[in-house]
TrEMBL record, chain A:
Its main location: membrane. Keywords: Cell membrane, Membrane, Transmembrane, Transmembrane helix, Transport. It comes from Streptomyces aurantiacus. This is Sugar ABC transporter permease. Belongs to the binding-protein-dependent transport system permease family. Residues 91-307 form the ABC transmembrane type-1 domain. It comes from the Bacteria. SUPFAM superfamilies: MetI-like. Residues 1-18 have a biased composition (Low complexity).
Amino acid sequence: MSTTTTRDTTRPAPAEVPRAGRRRRVRSSTLNFWIFTGPFLAGLVIFVYIPIGWSAYLSFFEARYTVTPDKFIGFDNYELMLTSGDFTGSLVTFTVFAAIIVPVTWALSLGLALMVHRLRFLKAFFRSVFFLPTACSFVAASLIWKMSIFSGVRFGLMNTVLGWFGVENTAWLADPNPPWYWLVIVTVRLWLQAGFYMILFLAALQNIPPVLYEAAAIDGARPGWQTFRHITLPQLRATSTAVILLLLVAAYQAFDEFFNLLAKSTWGRPPLVELYYTALGEDQDYGAGSAGAVILTLLICMVTLLQGRFLGFGKGDDAR
Amino acid sequence: MTTVRPLRARRGVLGSAGLYFATVVCALLFLVPFYLIVRNALSTDAEITGENWKWFPTDVQWGNVTELFDDATVPFGRSLWNSAVVGVLHTVGTLLVCSLAGYGLARIPYRHANKIFYAVLVTLMVPAAVTFVPSFVLVSSLGWVSSLQGLIVPGLFSGFTCFLFRQYFLGFPRELEEAARVDGLGYWGAYWRVVVPNSLNFFAAIATITFISGWNAFLWPLVIGQDQESWTVQVALSSYMTNQTVNFHLIFMATAVSILPLVLVFLFLQRWLVQGVAQTGIKG
């Protein structure tokens, strides 16, 4: 921040505070604490804690079309979700999706960052170009992908370009065999997110001390792959790890592009889309939907705790 | 030495030519979707779906703009208005509520402050999107479905934003606040007269990020927007994709209009946006 402070070096020694005064001070700071944090904490309880609790409660009831059910059915909702195949299938879809999107986005955003970092002229311009898709929503991007680039008919951009080389029209989204829809889904997210992560890598690249490269050059490391492999990549480790985790969590929440690109097709449904159709579709089965939400919440909590274990994050105050 | 140098130099020139070539190719690929939006938004349907690919419309169809807002099947103008209201109130509300809480947690001594901070941290483990079913259950029993408060209020209490503010305030120079205290200001006065005015950069960065994610949000507005009057622009856009009749020029004009405000935000506030990304991205 651009604040300059005139530091007062002669800090006054803490005066002797009489007992009553100190107690009043404590009480006033307690009051202030609640004035500052009260609204937020109340909202957090009402809109985060209560829904999760209520949902855990609903998940043990038969709750179709109602959120105040009276028929207790034990773990039936969980059994339904875990054995129906649709929900477990959505977890498989997520796994496939994450296995593709995470490494590909990581590689592309790192590649873009390395490229932009080396530019001497127009650096800011190209950085903006790659970053610009961040301003675009998933819905808008899905629309362009579905209606224009990967439109299954003759005038779609992809089919037009392929047509110049004599390739037949491809139904990119309408047909799961072969699963071309993955190409559409992955490129949409890649386009939207690569610039965002590029910014993170650029910041990290700027923080690598140039001395390291000089030392490597003296030691005879050739510029290019050797320096990249032994200097740049290890220096980016913290950022890389953070980027991969962020990508994973984002993929877990993927909804917009699947919902809009695949509409109501029964293939390629990630967990949140599956939940949407369970809880808010024809059946309005809030019980099963809640059970699904509880399962997803537990899964992501487990992942977060494990990652904290392995990476030493989440140690409260020193978490940064 | 003398024989090596020209070789090096030549390789340098070739290398940077290659670098610029690759960068330009990538940049063009990244711009293709924007080009398609503009091209399709200003063409007629006949040209978009025509036999031969046309790179530019023969006649630029500015009339598509008025046609979009006159079209009665999707209340696009209304949805744009809703998005603007939601975007602004969401941003102002989040900043207000979360920054105050962040400051309280960072600076005001209280016996149970640590426990409360952990209760906030726990919520960071669960992304809000994952619990949209429970949130919908709550909001619907409050009777807030299809209402602006239903769209805005549940999103204001972001544990992550509060966490960011707390971390930021921990690094705020204490001397400034002490000076304010000497001048007789309490926590409240010091916060508004000294802390906030000296933190405008950070506020701007968080505000930019919050506004963009609010404008682009889709899942929650979709769940809440059960009737057309309460649609945000993203829900309206999405509805075009499932409509029976497809008017390509209208759909793309709608996309163009929906993106325009954010492109402006992007161009004018990019400095804060980059800061915000760096700030929010690496949370560790």
